[in-house]
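Long-time lurker, first post. I've been practising inverse folding by hand and with some scripts of my own, and I keep getting stuck on stretches where the structure tokens seem ambiguous. Below is the full token string for one chain I'm working on. Before anyone asks, I'm not after the true native sequence, just a reasonable design that respects the backbone. If someone could post their per-position residues I'd love to compare against what I wrote down in my notebook.
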């Protein structure tokens, strides 16, 4: 059976804390597989994922001390408060190489796009960045991760962009799906984001029971 694409998106609405148990359960699994886990989000969410990891039986302090677990709110990829795709890609490549050099099987990373994009919320080059990221995933099989898109804090058009550029969708720690709305770069056109099926798919992913 073919494995799911490793570049996934999580599109959700409601309190972000509701997503933490599933993410913590997945991170515990990745840690057990000798993958370094990188979690990038706001300080309150970093505190929340720490608590959820402890609840999953992960010794957060020990995992952090040995470098298996990196929980951070740092945003060195921002330049004057604005998202810099080049810097983000450089940092991700360095993090991936560092994990391998340290003896890990790979790097699993997740970040909240609202937090990553910074206070100015510049999403003009989001599609270009995500496709660059997908190409990086394709050439680095040791990398996997989830881009988090919060419906309550992102414009609808950004959610559509997030959906079409990810080949896989994360629903829960036990359910990840091939994304039927994924569009390859060479197939993307100005009308791609106007497809009404995208809004319907986003609403389904955000509806209660979508992981049933």
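-- Answer (accepted) --
I ran through it position by position. Result:
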């Amino acid at each position: 059976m073919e494995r799911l694409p490793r570049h996934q998106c999580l599109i959700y609405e409601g309190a972000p804390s509701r997503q933490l148990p599933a993410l913590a359960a997945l991170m515990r699994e990745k840690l057990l597989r000798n993958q370094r886990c990188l979690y990038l989000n706001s300080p309150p969410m970093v505190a929340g994922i720490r608590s959820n990891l402890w609840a999953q039986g992960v010794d957060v302090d020990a995992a952090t001390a040995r470098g298996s677990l990196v929980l951070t709110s740092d945003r060195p990829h921002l330049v004057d408060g604005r998202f810099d795709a080049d810097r983000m890609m450089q940092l991700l490549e360095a993090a991936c190489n560092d994990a391998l050099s340290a003896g890990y099987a790979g790097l699993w990373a997740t970040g909240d796009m609202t937090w990553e994009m910074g206070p100015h919320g510049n999403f003009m080059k989001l599609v270009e960045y995500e496709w660059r990221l997908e190409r990086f995933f394709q050439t680095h099989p040791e990398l996997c991760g989830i881009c988090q898109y919060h419906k309550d804090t992102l414009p609808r058009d950004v959610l559509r962009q997030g959906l079409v550029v990810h080949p896989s969708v994360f629903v829960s720690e036990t359910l990840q799906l091939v994304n039927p709305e994924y569009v390859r770069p060479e197939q993307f056109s100005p009308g791609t984001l106007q497809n009404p099926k995208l809004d319907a798919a986003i609403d389904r992913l955000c509806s209660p029971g979508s992981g049933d």
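A couple of notes from the structure itself: Residues 183 and 189 are 10 Å apart (CA to CA). Strands lie at 7-12, 35-40, 69-72, 78-79, 82-83, 106-112, 143-150, 168-172, 175-178. Happy to go over any region you disagree with.
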